[in-house]
């Protein structure tokens, strides 16, 4: 049973990343063009409304993976066991954040409201595929491998792994908020004059670089003062 619970530690990290779609992905959507102009009608999405894509894709991908993809792979000797499926699922889910990073880079370069929200469908699709391979397969693995008298306990540990992932999301959000407060305390003229040539890193969004530069400058000043004392 302890071997099974040890695997759940990696599942907690997966859920931490998965739940970013309810926080940082929504904040990214706030900066995107959410207006859809179709042939017959047009509408504007709220930032949170694209979350419906995840459960919709889950309902489509679970039978597709179980009835088509997994049998096709198993006939070729690929992904026969449960743990390889979960490993590949986590790797696929990580690619969703590569897509999100590329979208964010496009937003930073082109400006707010210039990148369309439809681009977020790509990371949603990748993340949902990873979720199906990790969550559904992990539940099957936990129930089938647990002793008969411990099945309920093991399933409880699975739910605990999910809750730990949610807690990690809260901690990361709090850390991000504290860093943002430090950035806002950093004088804007210091950011622009001490960190880079004129015109570079002048955007307020680059305050994290300014914060790191400010802390480095303070360390150098303290070191110089102590050296002069000797």
What does this structure look like?
This protein is globular. The chain has two domains: 2-177, Growth Hormone, Chain: A (Up-down Bundle), CATH 1.20.1250.20; 189-229. It has a two-stranded antiparallel ribbon with strand order 1-2. The protein has helices at 2-18, 24-30, 53-75, 82-110, 121-145, 151-185, 188-194, 207-229; strands spanning 35-37, 42-44. Helix 1 packs parallel to helix 6 (151-185) and helix 4 (82-110) runs antiparallel to helix 5. It has eight helices and two strands; from the N terminus they run H-H-E-E-H-H-H-H-H-H. With 230 residues, it is an all-alpha fold. Strand 1 (35-37) and strand 2 form a beta hairpin.
Overall body shape: globular
CATH class of the largest domain: Mainly Alpha
Described by strand count, sense and barrel closure, the largest sheet is:
2 strands, antiparallel
Oligomer: single chain
The total number of structural domains is: 2
Determine Rg (CA atoms, Å).
23 Å
CATH architecture of the largest domain: Up-down Bundle
Number of strands: 2
CATH superfamily of the largest domain: MFS general substrate transporter like domains
- Specify the number of helices: 8
Uncertain regions spanning at least 5 consecutive residues: 188-205, 226-230
């Amino acid at each position: 049973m302890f071997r099974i619970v040890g695997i759940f530690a990696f599942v907690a990290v997966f859920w931490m990343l998965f739940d970013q779609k309810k926080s940082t992905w929504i904040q990214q959507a706030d900066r995107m063009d959410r207006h859809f102009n179709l042939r017959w009608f047009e509408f504007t999405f709220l930032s949170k409304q694209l979350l419906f894509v995840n459960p919709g894709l889950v309902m489509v991908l679970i039978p597709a993976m179980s009835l088509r993809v997994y049998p096709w792979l198993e006939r070729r000797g690929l992904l026969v066991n449960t743990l390889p499926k979960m490993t590949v699922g986590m790797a696929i889910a990580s690619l969703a954040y590569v897509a999100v990073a590329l979208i964010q880079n496009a937003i930073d370069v082109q400006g707010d409201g210039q990148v369309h929200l439809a681009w977020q469908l790509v990371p949603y699709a990748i993340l949902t595929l990873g979720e199906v391979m990790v969550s559904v397969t992990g539940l099957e693995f936990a129930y089938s491998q647990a002793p008969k008298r411990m099945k309920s306990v093991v399933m409880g540990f699975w739910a605990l792994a999910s809750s730990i992932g949610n807690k990690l999301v809260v901690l990361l959000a709090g850390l991000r908020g504290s860093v943002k407060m430090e950035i806002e305390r950093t004088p804007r003229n210091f950011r622009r004059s001490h960190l880079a040539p004129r015109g570079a890193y002048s955007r307020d969004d680059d305050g994290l670089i300014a914060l790191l530069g400010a802390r480095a400058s303070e360390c150098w000043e303290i070191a110089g003062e102590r050296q002069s004392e000797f």
